[in-house]
Every structure is written in structure tokens, then in C-alpha cells.
Amino acid sequence: MIQDKKVVFSGVQPSGNLTIGNYLGAIKNFSRFSDEYKTFYCVVDLHAITVRQVPADLRRRTYETLALYMACGLDEKKNTLFVQSHVPAHAELGWMLDCYTMFGELSRMTQFKDKSQKHAENINAGLFTYPALMAADILLYQTDLVPVGIDQKQHLELTRDVAMRFNQAYGDTFAIPEGYIPTDTMKIMSLTEPTSKMSKSDENQNAVVYILDSKDDIIRKFKKAVTDSEASVRYAPEKPGVSNLMTIYRAFTGKSLEDIEREFDGKGYGEFKLAVGEACADGLAPVRDEFARLMADKAHLESVMKAGADEAAYYARRTMSKVRRKIGFVN
Ligand code: TRP
After folding, report:
1. Is the domain of 67 the same as that of 123?
2. Looking at the domain assignment, is residue 181 inside a domain?
3. Buried-state track 129-154, b at ≥16 Cβ within 10 A, e below 16
């Protein structure tokens, strides 16, 4: 806690286009904290370079990710919106926490294992220590609550372990953060391979629905979504495709799974998929419009980034001077 309010921190990578999985699993929830908490939402560009990026794309996506935060309802006056590399304390604390994070712990991270399989030609040290930098992001702001998708749960547990280890060694330094992981939307799965997570880097464009996809594209992708041969809209582990579509439909309409089963009782998958596609496209339309408006004014986005970085740096400095003193660096 800094001052009177509890602190929320979260981050999104500016790599690839964001999917409805990112939206439903994380970003859509961010604005619910704006009033009661001191909120920091960060575009984590330092994390993005753990895999190769085309410089011009990285730069554009950094603007886009900030614009998307805002288009998803984050008011820059009520939330601290900033870019990770604009506040050097992230990299600095990241290094320090590397020294309090164990090789064995990092080796167990499933995201590391996945990404090193996917990028076998570039298993760099940053990819390995990625979770220590994420811990630094969170711990710099004395964060109480971290809204993330379920895939980040393991990184969050590591963050808590590292914070507790540091506090044990040096006395109270970091707040111990809790995760805020929405269970009602769960994981959004690939539309073509519904047993694996919907990933923004999937090569199959039909597997992934992006927040900024056009209505036509969204409907087309849902039409092609993999289901099963049973032809009944029912939520069940042996029906991963249909269950995933129901999860998405529920998230956009607020209907319960039972309501959805009733609504499509005796109806075919064609009708069901169209309904899901329309609910999704309609739900995203305001976000898409606002995004386009924001991207047309780079200067405004830059002023938001600048103000956000100044504000974040102020809080980061307070933690850093404490950390330096505790570790034994000369002031
Ligand atoms: N690792 C997160 C992801 O891939 C992004 C992230 C970086 C993050 N730092 C963070 C999320 C701090 C929450 C808090 O989605």
C-alpha cells in the first residue's frame, strides 16, 4: 500500500495483436479498480524483446497497446498508464531480483518451457529471467493486487516467493501481492485447436480472434470454429470446442451457461456459432472505434505516456531507495 489506497499493477506486452483472450482474461477487468485503488498499467516493452522484434513493429505496437488500454475504458486521469522502458527502475530492480531468484525456480516456469520450444534458435538469458523482471514490475509499486489471466499464475507465485525471500533476509521491504484471476471467464482457447490456449502468436489466423478484427472477420472465424459431431450446445470437458464458444458467449452477453444451453436447445451449431460471432463483434465495436480515434493522435498518446512515466517513477524511486539501503549499496 502506498499512501491511503491499495495498489493494483498489471502489464501487457506490446508484441503481436491482442486477442479476445487478453481482453476477457485481463484488460476488460482493469477499469473496475480505477476508483478504489491506485492503479498502474504498464506496456511491458522490456519483456517483449525476450523474443525477436522488428523495431518499427515494436514501436507501433507500444502506441497501440497504450491506445488499447484507453479504448478498453482506462481513463488516463484515473490510472497511471506508462511504458516500462521509460522507467529505468524496472530494469534495475529486475537485475537485483535476478540475484534472489533461483535457477531451479526459473527452470520450472511453463511459459519459459513453451517459449524455448517455440524459439529454439533464441533461448536467451532474458527469456529465462523474464519472471524476475515481472516480479520487479510488481514489487516496485508495493502492489497489493495483480489482475492477470490464469496463464500468469505461476509467475505470480514466483513473485510472492521472491518478495518473501527478500523480506525474510532484509526485513519488510515489499508488499506481498495477491493475484486477481477471473475464474468466470477462465482461459480462452484456440478456435481451431480448443485444447490449447488462444495465443496472439498463433500462425493459424482462424484460431485467434483479435480485439481489432473487423466484424466480418470475427463472424467468419467463429463460423470455422472447431466443434464436435454431437450437435448439442452443452458445456462438458469432452466438448472443448463448444465449451470454449460458450465461455466466450457468456463473457460477452453475461448469460449463464445454463441459459445458453437452454437458448440453443435443439438448434444446430451453425446458429450457435453465428450468435457467438455477433455477440463478440458487437461487444468489441466500441473498443475498435475508440482505438481508431486514439491512434489518430500520436501526440496525445505521447503526453499520456510521459505523464504516466513521471508518476510511476516517483513511486518507483521510493521503493528503490529502500531496496538499495537494505542490500547495502552506498548511498
Ligand atoms: N508476463 C505477462 C504476460 O505475458 C506480462 C507482464 C509483465 C505482467 N509484467 C507484468 C503482468 C506484471 C502483470 C504484472 O501476460
Report:
1. yes
2. yes
3. bbbbbbbbbbbbbbbbbbbbbbbbeb
Whose cell is 508484441? That residue is: 15
Whose CA is closest to 10, among 189, 197, 143, 158?
A: 143
**Tens of each residue's pLDDT in the chain, 331 residues:** 556 899 999 999 997 788 998 888 778 889 999 999 999 999 999 999 999 999 999 999 999 999 999 999 999 999 999 999 999 999 999 999 999 999 999 999 999 999 999 889 999 999 999 999 999 999 999 999 999 888 899 999 999 999 999 999 999 999 999 999 877 656 899 999 999 989 887 889 999 999 999 999 999 999 999 999 999 999 999 999 999 999 999 999 999 999 999 999 999 999 999 999 999 999 999 999 999 999 999 999 999 999 999 999 999 999 999 999 999 999 8
Q: Which domain holds residue 320?
A: 7-186+298-327
Number of domains in the chain: 2
Query: How many angstroms is it from 27 CA to the middle of ligand 1?
Result: 12
The helix or strand, by DSSP H or E, that contains position 70, with its residue range, turns out to be helix 55-71
Q: Which amino acid is at 37?
A: Y
Q: How far are the Cα atoms of 66, 208, 236, 261, 321 from residue 18, in angstroms, in the given order?
A: 12, 10, 27, 29, 35
Closest protein CA for atom 14 of ligand 1 = 10
Q: Which three cell numbers stand for residue 266?
A: 435443439
Q: Strand 80-83 vs strand 145-147: parallel, antiparallel, or unpaired?
A: unpaired
Tell whether 32 and 128 lie within a shared domain: yes
Rounded to whole angstroms, the Cα distance separating 159 from 121 reads 28
Residues near ligand 1 (Cβ within 6 A)? 9-11, 13, 44, 47, 134, 137-138, 146, 148, 152, 155
Residues 217 and 312 in one domain: no
Long-range contacts at 164-170 (CB < 8 A, ≥ 24 apart): 165/100, 166/97, 166/100, 169/100, 170/326, 170/327
Atom of ligand 1 nearest to the CA of 133: 9
